[in-house]
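Entry 14. Structure prediction run on the chain below.
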Amino acid sequence: MEYSLELASPVLRQTPLVLKAMLADLPDEWTDTSEGSDAWTPREVVGHLAYVEESDWIDRTRMILEQGLSGVFEPIDREAGFERFADAGLSDLLEHFAMVRNENLRALHSLVKPENLGDRGAHPDFGEVRLEELLAAWVVHDLNHVGQILKTMAKQYAVAVGPWREYLPIIDAP
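Output returned:
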C-alpha cells in the first residue's frame, strides 16, 4: 500500500485511544513489568511515544518542508521519555500523549498537501528521505509499539497458560 494522508490519519488518531483502552486503570504489575532487563515496560513505551510526539514527527515534517536537504535531522534519544515522564502517573501520561497527538494531527493537516509527499530531507543515519517515508514511519512506529506492549503483557502469563502456550505464539515471539 502506498502512503496516503487520508488512510494514515485514522491510525494516528486512534493510537492514543487504543493505548488508553488497553492500559488505563491496570495494576502496576501489568504496566511496569518488562520482558527482561533491556526491554521496555508498557509505561516506558508510552513515555517514549509521548516524547517523540513532542520532538520528532512534526518537527521533522516542518524541517523537510522548510529546509529540504539543507538541514539534517537531530538524532532522537529513544529513552529520553523515561526520565522526562518519570514522575507522571500513567493516566496523566496517556492524556498528555493524546493531547500532543491531537495538536500534531492538526498541524499535519495544515502543513502537508499531497504534492509535498515527495519532498526530501536529510536523516543523520539514512541520508536522503522523502516526507511520505517519514509520515509512513510515524504510522508504523505507532503500530510497532502497540504490538510491543501487547507482547510484553502476554509474556507475563507465559507460564500461567500451561499447555495452551503452543497455541499462543505471541509468548515466544522475539
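The mean pLDDT is 96.
Filed with the rest of this week's runs.
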